[in-house]
Amino acid sequence: MKSKFFQLFLYSFVLLFIISNHLTLFAQTITVSNAGTAAVRGVYVNKGLDTDNTHDYYMKLDGSMYIYFAGGYWNIYTARNDGSTDYYYWNFTPLDPNPPTLPIGGPNGWSYVAVLGTGPGAITKQNANANMTFANGSGYTPSTPTRGTSNNPVGRFQLTGSRYGGILDGLTISLSGTRTGVSNIKLWAGSVSGSPLATVATDNTTITFNNFYSLVDSSSGTIYYVTIDLTAGATGSVTPTIPSQASFTFAGANVPSSFTSAPLSSGSAPLPVELNSFNAVLNGNSVALNWSTATEVNNYGFNIERKPENGSWNKIGFVQGHGNSNSPKSYSFIDDSPPGGKLSYRLQQIDLEGVSKNFDPVNVSFEIPKSELKQNYPNPFNPSTVITYNLSTNSYVSLKIYDVLGNQVAVVANGFQNAGIYNIKVDASDFKLSSGIYFYKLITDKFIETKKMILTK
Q1: Which residues are bridge partners to 415 per DSSP?
Q2: Which residues, including other chains, have CB under 8 Å from residue 39's CB and lie 6 or more apart?
Q3: Among 11, 316, 319, 351, which residue has the least CB neighbours within 10 Å?
Q4: Phi, psi of 14 (to 5 degrees)
Q5: Closest Cα partner for 120 from 71, 185, 73, 189?
Q6: pLDDT (tens digit per residue) in 128-144
Q7: CATH code reported for the domain at 274-366
Q8: Neighbours of 286 (CB within 10 A)
Q9: Are 110 and 130 in contact, with CB atoms under 8 Å apart?
Q10: Domain coordinates of the chain in residue numbers?
Q11: Domain 372-455 is in which class?
C-alpha cells in the first residue's frame, strides 16, 4: 500500500513538474506570429546552448544564420568565420503544431536574445543595439576601370559593430563627376566576388541601395565595396561619397558618429583613355610609332617604352596628351636610334593624377646594316649637323672632332653602346667652334673611320 501510494505520489509529482515546466516556458516565450518561412533580421544569439543537429523547418535570419523548427524546439544555426558551424536550440512550446517565426524588428530597434542555460531556455527581448564605427575610403586607390567590363571598384568603406547582431539594410551614396556609359552600380560585402548585396541599374548623382541584409562584423569589421559596369565607349570620371551618417539604415544598431561627405576613395576614378590603334613602321634608319585615341579623360600623356629581345622595358620618350576629349586624336613618335634585332614598343598612358596604364605592345624586326660612319648632314652646316653611324655589334665607341692641325676640339661620344643606328646632333656653339674644316673620327672594337665636315658662319 505504501509502495503504491509512493508510486502515485511520484507520478503526480512528475506530471505536475512537466505541466509547470511547460507553463513556465510558455509564459516566458514571446508572442510569435505564424509566418511560415518569412525572413527575420537583427537577431542576437548568445553561444553556449545545447546542440541539436536536426530540423524540420527553417527561416533565414541573415546571410549566414538560419532558425530551424524541430519537434517543439527552435534551433539556431550560424556559420563561424573559420568555416565551422554552431547549432543552438531551446523550447518555444511543445503544443504549437505550426512552425512559428520571430516577428521582424521590434520596438525601438530591439533584438531577440536566447537566454543561456544548461538545457532549453526561454526567449526574451532586450535592448541589444550595436554601436557602429565608420571608416571612410580616403586611403583606398582603386585600379583604373576598364571599358566594356563589369564590377569595376570605385570606392569602399568599413563598418564595425560594438556587438554581434547589427544589420546594415540600406545605404545612400553620391556619385559626382561627368561621365557616360556607366550602369549597374553595386554594393558588395567583404570582397567583389559572389553576389552583390544590392544593384541600382541606372546611373545617377544619388544612388540608394535598399532591401538587403548584411550582418556587420563585430571583431575586425566588414569592408563594403562600390562597383560600376562600363560600356565599351564609357567616358568621364566617378567620385563616390557617403553624404552623412543619416545615409545608413540599420536594424539592431545605432548610426555612426556624425560626418559630412565621407570619401570612398583617394580621388576620382577616371575612365581610361580609349586607344583606337597603335603600330610601328620601319622608316629607313628609324622606327616610326603612330597611334590614335577615340576619347580621352584626364590624359596627361604617354611614355614611350622600348624593349629589345631578351631585354627589359626602358623609357625612350614622352608625348603630351590632350587632357579631355570626345573626338579622335592622333599621335606619333620617331625612334631615331633603335638597336638591332627584334624590338617591342609600348605606350604607358599617364593621367593627371599620376596613375598609369600600359597598353599592349607592338613588335618590329630591325636589321642593322654593317658597321659604318656616314657623312654628316647637312654639310656644310651652321650651326648644327647630324652625325650618323651604324654598329653591327655591341662595342666601345669613341666619336671625336679634330681641327685641320689634328687638335681634338670636341668629344661627341665616349663609352659602351649596343648595336644599332645612332643619329647624334652636333651644335658648333656648344663647343665654341669657328668657321672652318673639321674631321670627325669614329673608333669601335671592329673599325676606325674618319670623315670631313665644314662649318660656315
Answers
A1: 397
A2: 59, 60, 61, 104, 213
A3: 11
A4: -65, -45
A5: 73
A6: 577 899 999 999 988 87
A7: 2.60.40.10
A8: 16
A9: no
A10: 2-128, 132-270, 274-366, 372-455
A11: mainly beta
Q: Which residue has the higher pLDDT, 192 or 46?
A: 192
Mean pLDDT of 314-331: 89
When the pLDDT of each residue in the chain is averaged and rounded to a whole number, the result is 74
Residue with cell 627584334: 342
Percentage above 90 pLDDT, the chain: 44
Burial of residue 166 (number of CB atoms within 10 Å: 0-12, 13-18, 19+): buried
Q: Which CATH class name applies to 132-270?
A: mainly beta
CA–CA dist 208, 202 (Å, integer):
11
Q: What is the dihedral of CA 189, 112, 164, 77, to 10 degrees?
A: -70
Q: pLDDT for 58-91, tens place per residue?
A: 233 333 333 433 333 344 433 333 444 333 333 3
pLDDT of residue 165: 62
Q: How confident is the model at residue 117 (pLDDT cuts 50, 70, 90)?
A: very low
| Residue 83 neighbours by CB distance under 10 Å | 6
Three-state DSSP state, 83: coil
Asked whether this chain's domains 132-270 and 274-366 adopt the same fold, the reply is no
Q: Which residues pair with 92 in a beta bridge?
A: none
